[in-house]
Design goal:
24 helices; about 15% strand; elongated
C-alpha cells in the first residue's frame, strides 16, 4: 500500500507537470468512456434490467392469433374461457385503452385510462398506496361504477389528499366512486394512466360478441415452476376446444404468448447492440490515441527511466509506475465521462421521445457505475500497457550515446500501428453512419401515399350519454364539420375512425359478391378500413385513380358504397375494372358497392408496409356506419384537417369553435401529419444521429492521432531533414516525404477498415432501407474522406518541416 501511494503521488506530479497532455488525454478518454457509459445505461435499462414488477419473469403478454395477425386483439368472451380453463397461469387479466372526459372544478379535461379486469393489478403484483383494487363482484354489468386513480393524476388533481377514497368523480357523464390510488411510479408498457375502470362493466353489445374484438389484450402470470412451452401447450389446447365449440367465431383462432419483457422491448435489441459495438470502437480509438500520446511523451522521459533502471529499478517496477499513471488518467477520464453520460443520455432520450422502449427506466444505476469503473480500469490497462512495456526496456548506454534517437524506431512503428488501427475503426464507424444516413434519405423519398404537408390530425371527445342515438351523433358530427369549414384557412376536414396512417390499425373481414361465403371469419379476406367523411381523401391528400371519391351524398339514406385502394384492386380484381363490384363486409353485416379506386397509403410505416400481411385498404363513409355500431363512436373520434398554411396556426380557432359547440368537448393528441411520418422511423433517426456523432468523434480522434504522430516524427527527424536539404532536397521533396508517411499509415488503416466493415455491416443489414450493407458508393466515399483528412492532418507538420533551415538544424545537432 505504501508503494502504491508513492506511485499515485508521483503519477499526480508527472501529470501536473504536463497540463496540456493531461487535459487532452482525459478529454479523449472521457468522450470514449462517456459514450460507452451512456449507451450501456440504455442497454441496461431496456434489455438487461427486469421489468419493474415482482417476479416479472413470470409475466406473459397474451394475444389472439388470426389470419394475417400473429398478435391480434382478443374477444372478451374468449378471455373469460381462457381464464377459467387454464392450468398453467396463476392469474390472467384483460385490459383496453379507454380515455374519459372529466369535468371537475375547471375546464373539461381528457383523461387517459384503461378498462381492466379485476385481476389486472394483482397479476402485475401492484399494490395500491391508498384504498384497494377492484373486486370481482364489481367487474360485471350493473355493478356500481368505481374507479382507481393513477398516482400522478391523484397528486395533480387532488393534491395527494388522503381523503379521496369514497369521493365521486364524473367520467363521461357517469358518477364513479374512487376506491383506490396506484403508485405514481407505476407504468404499463411505458405509459402511466390517469384512471382505471372495470372492463366488465362496459355495456356495449359488441363487447360480448365472440366474433368481435374491441382492441383488448391480455396478460398473465405463470404458476411457479411452469415453463413457457408448457403454458403454450396449455393455451393451444384451450384454443382447439374453443374452435370446436364455436366454429364460426373461433375456427383457426389461436393464442400467442410472448414474454412481457420481450413484448415491451420489441425489435430494438439489434439496433442497440449495433450502437454498443460502435461505441466500443470509439473507446478503442480513444485508447489508441492516448497510447500514442504516452509513447510520444515517453520519449522525453527515456533518460529518466534509463537512469532508474541503472539504479536498480526492475522492469516490473517501471511498468507498474507507468500503469499507475495510465489508470489514474483513465479514472479521471471515467469520472468526467460519467458526467457526460448523465447529460448526454437525458438529452438524447428527451429529444427523441418514443424512439426507445422503457426510456423512463434508463438511469445511471449501480450496474452502470460498476460498468464505468471496470471500463476505466480496462481502458487504463489497454492504452498504458504497450507504452509501458516499450519504455521500461531501455538501455542507459543507448540513451546517452544516441541522445534519445536510438530507441525511437520501434516506437515509431508502434505509433504507426496505433494510427492505422484508429483509421480502420474510424472507417467502420463512418461506413455505418453513412449507410444509416443513406437509409434515412431513402425513407424520406418514399411516397407515403398521402400528402403530409399542411395536414394535421387530433382526437375529439364527444360527451355522450348512454341514451344518445345514432341520429344525434351524426348531427353533432355534421355541426362540427360546418364549424371547421367556417375557419379561415381550412381547406378540407373529415372526422375519421378505424385506421389512421401510422397511428392506428383496424381491419375487417369480407368476401366478394358472387363468391361463396367462407365458413368462418378466419377464412375470409381481410382489409384495413378507414371510416371517412367526404373530405377525408382531400384532407389527407390521397390521389384518385378511378371512379370517384366519397361525397356528402353517401349518407345514412343512400346505398352503402366504398372506395378501395389500388392494392385491393390488383389483389382481388386483377385484369378487371372493380368499379361497380360489390363486397360483403362481415363486421358491419352490409354489402357495399365499389365506386372509386384511390392510392395506397403506407399504413404500417414507410419501411414496413410492404412486409405487412394485410395491405389492402378501403374507405367507408362515416355516416353509413350501421346504427348498432354508432354508439362506439359517440364518445370520441379522430379528425384530419388540411390548411392553406401552417396547420398548427389554426388550432386556436379550432379550439374556440369546439368550445362554442360544447364546452365539455376536449381536443387532445394533436399531431401534424409531418410529425406522424417522422415519428414512424424515430428509432432509425436515433440510430443515425448516434452513429453520426460517434463517427464524427472517431474521425476527429483519428485526425488528431495522425497529426500527433506526424508532428512528433517531424520534430524527431529535424536533423535528417536538415541534412537532406543541405544535400539538395527541395521543399517539395520534404512535403512529399512527410505527407507520404502519413498517407501510408492512413491507406493501411483504410484497407484494414474496409475489410472489417464488409464483415461487420452485415450485422446492421436489418436496420437499413433502400441501400445495401456493402454499398460501394458509401465505402468509396468514406475511404476517400479519410484519406483526405489524413493528408490534411499531415499538412501542418509538413509545412513546418519545409521551413527547416539546414544550417540551424545541423548546428543544433
Amino acid at each position: 500500500m505504501e508503494t502504491l501511494l508513492q506511485d499515485l503521488r508521483y503519477a499526480l506530479r508527472m501529470l501536473a507537470k504536463s497540463p496540456g497532455f493531461t487535459a487532452t488525454a482525459i478529454l479523449t478518454l472521457a468522450l470514449g468512456i462517456g459514450a460507452n457509459t451512456a449507451l450501456f445505461s440504455v442497454v441496461n435499462g431496456v434489455l438487461l434490467n427486469p421489468l419493474a414488477y415482482p417476479q416479472s419473469g413470470q409475466l406473459v403478454a397474451i394475444y389472439g392469433k388470426t389470419t394475417g395477425f400473429e398478435q391480434a386483439p382478443i374477444s372478451y368472451l374468449n378471455f373469460l374461457d381462457w381464464q377459467r380453463d387454464t392450468q398453467t397461469f396463476s392469474s390472467m387479466a384483460i385490459y383496453r385503452n379507454n380515455d374519459y372526459n372529466f369535468i371537475g372544478t375547471g375546464e373539461a379535461e381528457r383523461l387517459t385510462g384503461y378498462m381492466v379486469s379485476a385481476d389486472f393489478f394483482s397479476t402485475l403484483g401492484v399494490t395500491p398506496i391508498l384504498g384497494r383494487t377492484f373486486l370481482r363482484d364489481e367487474d360485471h354489468p350493473g355493478a356500481a361504477p368505481v374507479v382507481i386513480l393513477g398516482g400522478g393524476f391523484w397528486k395533480r388533481k387532488f393534491g395527494s389528499s388522503l381523503e379521496v377514497i369514497g369521493k365521486a368523480m364524473i367520467l363521461n357523464g357517469t358518477s364513479y366512486t374512487i376506491v383506490g390510488v396506484i403508485p405514481a411510479a407505476f407504468t404499463f408498457y411505458g405509459h402511466d394512466r390517469d384512471v382505471y375502470t372495470p372492463i366488465g362493466q362496459w355495456t356495449d353489445a359488441s363487447f360480448r360478441d365472440r366474433r368481435v374484438d374491441v382492441s383488448a389484450h391480455g396478460i398473465g402470470r405463470l404458476k411457479p415452476g411452469v415453463t413457457f412451452s408448457q403454458a403454450k401447450a396449455d393455451m393451444d389446447g384451450i384454443a382447439e376446444n374453443l374452435a370446436a365449440a364455436y366454429p364460426e367465431a373461433d375456427k383457426a383462432v389461436g393464442i400467442t404468448l410472448v414474454s412481457m419483457k420481450e413484448d415491451i422491448v420489441g425489435n430494438v435489441q439489434p439496433f442497440l447492440l449495433v450502437l454498443l459495438a460502435a461505441v466500443g470502437f470509439l473507446l478503442l480509438i480513444a485508447c489508441a490515441n492516448v497510447a500514442n500520446l504516452l509513447l510520444a511523451r515517453s520519449m522525453g522521459r527515456s533518460r529518466e527511466f534509463a537512469i532508474r533502471a541503472a539504479m536498480g529499478a526492475s522492469h516490473v517496477r517501471v511498468i507498474r509506475q507507468l500503469l499507475t499513471e495510465s489508470i489514474l488518467l483513465a479514472g479521471l477520464g471515467g469520472a468526467l465521462g460519467l458526467l457526460l453520460a448523465f447529460w448526454g443520455t437525458k438529452a438524447v432520450l428527451g429529444s427523441l421521445p418514443g424512439a426507445v422502449p422503457r426510456a423512463n427506466e434508463v438511469s445511471l444505476d449501480s450496474r452502470v457505475l460498476l460498468f464505468t469503473v471496470g471500463l476505466s480500469l480496462f481502458a487504463g490497462i489497454v492504452f498504458g500497457l504497450a507504452p509501458a512495456l516499450k519504455t521500461s526496456r531501455v538501455s542507459l548506454q543507448e540513451i546517452l550515446k544516441e541522445g534519445g534517437r536510438g530507441v525511437s524506431g520501434a516506437r515509431h512503428r508502434l505509433q504507426g500501428v496505433f494510427v492505422a488501427v484508429e483509421v480502420a475503426m474510424a472507417l467502420v464507424l463512418l461506413v455505418g453512419a453513412g449507410l444509416m444516413v443513406r437509409s434515412l434519405a431513402a425513407l424520406w423519398r418514399v411516397n407515403p401515399g398521402f400528402n403530409p404537408s399542411h395536414a394535421i390530425t387530433f382526437n375529439l371527445s364527444l360527451p355522450a350519454a348512454s341514451t344518445t342515438s345514432a341520429a344525434e351523433t351524426r348531427a353533432r358530427l355534421r355541426h362540427f364539420d360546418d364549424e371547421m369549414h367556417n375557419i379561415p384557412g381550412v381547406q378540407a376536414v373529415s372526422v375519421t375512425l378505424g385506421s389512421r396512417p401510422m397511428i392506428h390499425n383496424s381491419s375487417l373481414p369480407f368476401w366478394i359478391e358472387g363468391q361463396p361465403r367462407p365458413a368462418n371469419l378466419q377464412e375470409m379476406h381481410q382489409a384495413m378500413f378507414y371510416l371517412a367523411e367526404a373530405g377525408f381523401q382531400l384532407a389527407m391528400g390521397i390521389p384518385l385513380e378511378r371512379g370517384r371519391f366519397l361525397t356528402p351524398q353517401d349518407d345514412e339514406h343512400a346505398p352503402v358504397v366504398i372506395d378501395i385502394d389500388d392494392v385491393f384492386a390488383r389483389t382481388y380484381f386483377p385484369h378487371e375494372n372493380p368499379i361497380g363490384k360489390r363486397i360483403n363486409l362481415a363486421g358491419f353485416n352490409v354489402q357495399a358497392e365499389i365506386v372509386g379506386v384511390v392510392g395506397h397509403v403506407k399504413q404500417w410505416g414507410l419501411d414496413a408496409d410492404a412486409k405487412s400481411t394485410i395491405e389492402a385498404q378501403f374507405d367507408y363513409p362515416f355516416m353509413q356506419l350501421p346504427e348498432k355500431l354508432m354508439p362506439l363512436v359517440a364518445d370520441a373520434v379522430a379528425v384530419v384537417l388540411r390548411t392553406e398554411g401552417d396547420p398548427t396556426a389554426v388550432m386556436g380557432a379550432v379550439r374556440r369553435a369546439v368550445e362554442r359547440i360544447d364546452s365539455r368537448e376536449v381536443i387532445y393528441n394533436v399531431q401534424t401529419m409531418d410529425e406522424v411520418v417522422s415519428n414512424s422511423f424515430a428509432a432509425r433517426r436515433l440510430s443515425m444521429i448516434l452513429l453520426g456523432v460517434f463517427a464524427a468523434l472517431a474521425l476527429v480522434l483519428a485526425c488528431i492521432g495522425i497529426y500527433g504522430v506526424i508532428s512528433y516524427l517531424v520534430g524527431q527527424r529535424t536533423h535528417e531533414i536538415g541534412v537532406r536539404m543541405a544535400l539538395g532536397a527541395e521543399r517539395g521533396d520534404v512535403l512529399r516525404l512527410v505527407i507520404g508517411h502519413g498517407a501510408r499509415m492512413a491507406l493501411i488503416g483504410v484497407a484494414i477498415g474496409i475489410a472489417a466493415a464488409l464483415g461487420l455491416t452485415r450485422l446492421m443489414a436489418n436496420q437499413l432501407f433502400g441501400v445495401s450493407a456493402h454499398d460501394p458508393l458509401t465505402f468509396a466515399g468514406v475511404a476517400m474522406l479519410l484519406v483526405i483528412v489524413a493528408v490534411a492532418a499531415c499538412y501542418i507538420p509538413a509545412r513546418r518541416a519545409m521551413r527547416v533551415d539546414p544550417m540551424i538544424a545541423l548546428r543544433h545537432e
